[in-house]
Amino acid sequence: MTQCVIYSPLIFTGRTLEPKVQPTLSVRFGLFDVDLVRGIVTRQGTRLKLQDQPFRILTILVQRPGEIITREELRQALWQEGTHVNFDGSLNAALKKLRSCLQDDAENPRFIETVPRQGYRFLAPVHQIHARANVTSATPSVTSTGTDEVEIHLSMQPEFSAERVAELQKERRKEQSARRWWDITLLTVAILFGSWLFFFIIYPVPHPSVQRMVRITNAGDIDETGGIVSDGSRIFFRERFGERWQLMQTSVEGGNAEGVAAPFANTRLFAISPDHSVFLIGEFNRPDDEMTLWLWPVQGGAPRRLGEATGRDPAWSPDGSQVVFVHDQSLFVVHADGTHRHEIARPNGRPHAPAWSGDGETIRFHSENGGSNGSTIWEMNADGSKLHRVLARGTPPVSQSSGQWTADGKYFLFSGCQNGECNLWGMREAWNWFRRTNQGPVQLTRGPDLLQVSIPAQTGSRVFAFSLRSHRELKKIDPKTNGSVFLTPTLRADEAVVSPEGQSLLYVDRPGGSLWLSRMDSKKQLRLTDAPLVAAAPRWSRDGKRILFTGVQPGHARQIYILSSDGGGLRAVLPEGREGASADWSPDDTQIVVSMRDVKIPPKFGIYLFKLQTGEFTLLPDSRGFAEPRWSPDGRYIAALDESKHHLVIYDFQTKSWRPLAEGGLIGIPYWSDKGESIYFQDQLEKEQSVYKVSVVGGEPQRVFGFGEVLQSPAHYLFNGLDDKGWLYVTVERGLTDIYALDLDLP
Predict the structure, then answer these.
(1) Do the Cβ atoms of 58 and 48 come closer than 8 Å?
(2) Higher-confidence residue: 676 or 21?
(3) Cα dihedral 543→546→547→553 (10° resolution)
(4) CA distance 577 to 639
(5) Residue 184 carries which DSSP code?
(6) CA terminus-to-terminus distance, the chain
(7) Whole-prediction pTM value?
(8) I want to staple 417 with a disulfide (CB 3.0 to 4.6 A). Which of 141, 153, 226, 399 is the partner?
């Protein structure tokens, strides 16, 4: 029997060997395996827990099996010079832990023997279990003893000397320390991430809200179409006095309003420059016309033209270097010195109220929905590229307009209308990394007044809004005697129409938009339509048995509907893909004349004749851009308004042509006299908002009745028909329009 006695995990020192191996040193004794580099002790494959100092003692012992290792040697190996420690106690404790790990007994040792007054000796034979060493040469020396026993003397190479092992163990400890710090770092990151996620989900950013609403003005007759501008200490707005408009100002905290000495008779103040040095103004004759744009020094002085810029709704860029404005159907930009005027976008609908983002890279505006109710806010880059909706289709509110970013850019505020109610809405723009944010629109106000929000920049969390409070009644006026009779006590009747026999009344209830039928001689009322259908422009058939009206449902094009006077048989008239604005009956009630257009390719509205039995429709020649058609009682003529509502025109079926009939500032819906020889209309921009009539054969319009005296109070009179005796039906809108300040909490 040949025995191989290995005195240490050494390599041969005779023959040259060149193994390509890693510097891994592992030994085995008994049932235990020890990885001297990685610091791992296993027993039959099971890893044992052993602390650093006990393991270092084991490393020293197994490298010199059978030799006595003195306590002084162990001290020098375990503690650096100058270290102050209870050496005896620490060493005894480490040896106790080592023996416990190896299941060794100090009284009857199998592995570690205590040599009294000398030190310690490792008793068990030690074997190298992985022949992996970074060696370049090895030479074994074999000695024969003359028996079957052969001793192999292994000389230790420098790679696996005690110093090398100590160096490897030091590197191992560094790796373990690095791994430990990495584990701690990962754990810390995991805890922080978990805490962030918990806080992010459980504690979202609160919704914005209105903290206070303060009335700023007490005029009651402010013109909300003139907008609001603020320089931080004052607000500027517009009031109407007869045929002219006066620019007014008051403190942002409220108080008496004063007139502003404006450079033009009718001046529209659009905006103030970011440095508060220049006003951007316009000169107009009619408020809805495009205006020449001017720059007017805040401290006073003569205004100067903004180059050749003419349009509507101009707005400054944040740095004051450019102005964006609307001209015709397009958005233009011009430099502040009036140069480099150029078109940047031409959206499908007519744009309104463009606004710059705080960084100057984005422009938003609203335009009429293509074929559906209300308007939609759009966004594009400052150069006109990447045009897209801000809110997806179907996202409330149905109609969005008049948007502006807050001064810090965190929120975008806008007016939102649905079901006849208009309120302030907000939408968070900035992302919060620490708390979950709601990116969708949030309604901030809820009635009872209608709010048309005008949000001047540079006001922080305060915005201004027009509050519209109105009560409507139907009044019958004799233009010859000025006598009058109130026909409806309701306070919310709008677009009221009396039946042909004069006994029933159709009206639209605001703000809900439902259509109602009421008897003149009783309080009995019948609801004809329900939400979400919003009705407008109702018309009786000539025989009084059917009702024609314009209706719209969220997300759909405006449609023309017919129903019986008892509320039954509701049906849509126009084919799919068509939008109808207003309509009227033919004299025999078999056809309607309708202002209509194609939804998919929305050109200007045209006037069509529509046969109810067959569904056939025919476009009247040269009728693009006309609206509010009304068929004469004898069937020969159709009256209509042009797109600007400045001209009343008439179509003659005999000559098959249109001709102008009257001109005004802002003409209301035309109504035929009982016999069809003349047309009545109201000029809403005339000094007394008078009602006129004009003969179908031509001639100058004749003034029928003026509302000059009653207009001194905060009320508006809207002409909406006449009876067979020539009495005028007038909707009296008694209301107040004032400015309120809304202080917002914008978390």
Answers:
(1) no
(2) 676
(3) -170
(4) 26
(5) H
(6) 89
(7) 0.68
(8) 399
